[in-house]
Amino acid sequence: MKKIIFIIILINFLITNVPADTMPKTGGTIIYGFTGQIAAFDPIKSNDIETIAVMSAIYETLVRYKDDFTDIEPGLATSWNVSKDAKEWIFYLRKGVYFHDGTPFNADSVIFSFSRQTIDKKGVTKIEAIDDYTLKFFLEEPYAPFLYGLSSTLAYIVSPTAVQKWGNEFGNHPVGTGAFKFKDWKQGDPVVLEKNTSYWDTPPYVEKVVYQPFTNNKDLLIALKTAAVHVMGSVDPQDIVTIERDENLKIAYKPGINISYLAMNTEKKPFDNVKVRQAINYAINKKKLVKFLFQGLAIPAVTPIPPLLWGNNKNIVDYDYNPQKAKELLKEAGYPNGFETTLWQMPVPRPYNPQPEKIAEIFKASLADVGIKAEIISSYDWKTYLAKGKLGEHEMAFFGWVPDYPDPDQFLYKLLDKDNAVKKIARNRAFYKNEQVHELLIKARQILDIKERSRLYYEAQKIIHDDAPWVPIAHVQQFLAFRKNIHDIIVDPRGTHKFYKAWIE
User: Fold this and answer.
1) What backbone phi and psi angles, to 5 degrees, belong to 73?
2) Peptide bond before 349: cis, by omega within 30 degrees of 0?
């Protein structure tokens, strides 16, 4: 008995003497500041990072990445299995889960959510409910990224009742099963989410999360330093030293899985000429640019696939900085005196391009050194910029990409395959079309063996490098600044940071 009493006393001592800053507390509001614009929260319509960050708090998927982003774990599905031919997947759904509107989550709601999007004919051909909590996906052929794709934005599960009620306005009244539920938002205003007290997993500690938009990082940093916001999602690299010296602030870092790049529209002259595109690659002092603009928090990009991700071809040698070589190639292409063109500058800072004005000016100056006179176009807002980019109205334009899930297919097929060079919906903003690359990428999507997939991606990257539809710029480290009394934010390498475990000291 004495031994038992001693153990109880010891446990009580350990519990009551845990340092205050390690014991999560409930209550309060976290204000997350960011630069950029937010669109309505409909998973089939919105795909910018800020909007996805909000949606990731509202909606959930069948499977999700672990907090350390190393592998897939159960989400709204508790387990799954796959047939020997990899064409049939069965998922066993979590019971007792409810949408924010009180309606039950079940197999029918999953089928409804997937039916809202256009199903790729080479992907899912049918989804069947075996019972209320068991689903079977039928694939036309083996699709290597399938399981990981179920963690993506397009795989968010929505409330059928809410969609039917609001129709095209559903994005302004989003309803999911996530840790937070939508409370209020109007275009240009903060987004207010509140704690889902009926969440199937551990409910959040904080009562609310507010996503507050800013027009520039300077004002956002002032807001962070004065506690007008608690978390800063857009940080200029040159401000990091200032933040680190502030005793009330801290920064969390995580290797990024992203790409920043300049797309050259290969459907427009003179960018239909590979020698012109190669010349532009030689004209840019990329190493110096990345060191100057990213302050050591990024690495120069050689291929679209980040080095941290499997499938990256580390044997490819980047274009070195060689203005003379650039001039020779322009002369061979029929432009001995260069040419005039336009260079579209991104209108807002992004995680992969925190200083869009400076990077545009550096590119303009570098191109001028080899005879290319580029007029910077900076008059479009972010929504218009993206829409015009999808239409292929640009000649040269800066873009970037953070994948829905970490698979090489997300970088090569989505951004550089001919299937995605369709105007109005184009992800391939270079409108690059190479049949050999297409065949390699399609084959890689159908093979489950990672070694063989990597071999195919190595080959595709070599062709893409030689064809030079882009100037790959940088893979940027993710970093998040916040007040020191904010704890346990999950820093996501894609930039969609999570607050369901965060708390305020």
Assistant:
1) -135, 165
2) no
Cα dist from 128 to 108, 143, 200, whole Å:
9, 18, 25
Q: Are 358 and 399 in contact (CB under 8 A)?
A: no
Kindly report the number of other CB atoms within 10 A of residue 477's CB atom: 18
> Nearest-CA neighbor of 472 among 284, 315, 322?
284
Tokens 């109005």 correspond to 424
Calpha distance 57→64 (Å, rounded):
13
Q: What angle do CA 344, 404, 162 make, to 5 degrees?
A: 105
Report angle CA 139, 141, 147 to the nearest 5 degrees. Answer: 55
Q: Is 160 helix (H, G, I), strand (E, B) or coil?
A: helix
Strand partners, 93: 77
Taking the C-alpha atoms of residue 243 and residue 221, their distance in angstroms, rounded to an integer, is 9
Q: How many CB atoms sit inside 10 A of residue 315's CB?
A: 9
- In sequence order, what are the residues at sequence separation of 6 or more whose Cβ sits closer than 8 angstroms to the Cβ of residue 145? 405, 407, 409, 410, 445
Only one residue has tokens 């200083």, namely 355
Task: Enumerate residues 6+ apart whose C-beta is below 8 A from 161.
Answer: 99, 101, 103, 175
SS (H, E, C) 365-411: HHHHCCCEEEEEECCCCHHHHHHHHHHCCCCEEEEEECCCCCCHHHH
User: How many residues does this entry show for the chain?
Assistant: 505
134 - beta bridge partners?
92, 131
Cα–Cα distance measured from residue 440 to residue 308, given in angstroms and rounded to the nearest whole number: 22
Least Cα distance to 313 among 438, 162, 425, 465 occurs for: 465
Answer whether 35's CB lies under 8 Å from 125's CB. no
Q: Given the DSSP bridges, would you call strands 72-74 and 249-254 parallel, antiparallel or unpaired?
A: unpaired
Encode the chain (505 residues) as per-residue pLDDT tens digits: 444 434 333 333 333 333 445 689 999 999 999 987 888 899 998 878 889 999 999 999 999 988 877 688 999 999 999 998 889 999 999 999 999 999 999 999 999 999 997 545 447 999 999 999 999 999 998 998 999 899 988 899 999 999 999 999 999 999 999 999 999 998 889 999 999 999 999 999 999 999 999 988 899 999 999 999 999 987 888 898 999 999 999 999 887 889 999 999 999 999 999 999 999 999 999 999 999 888 878 999 999 999 888 899 999 999 999 999 999 999 999 999 999 999 999 998 887 898 899 999 999 999 999 999 999 999 999 999 999 999 999 999 999 998 888 899 999 999 999 999 999 999 999 999 999 999 999 999 988 888 999 999 999 999 999 999 999 999 998 889 999 999 999 988 777 889 999 999 9
Judge contact between 275 and 267, C-beta under 8 A.
Answer: no
Inter-residue contact 349 to 217 (CB < 8 Å): yes
* 325 neighbors 359 (Cβ within 8 angstroms): no
Going by C-alpha positions, the residue among 163, 156, 111, 103 that lies closest to residue 137 is 111
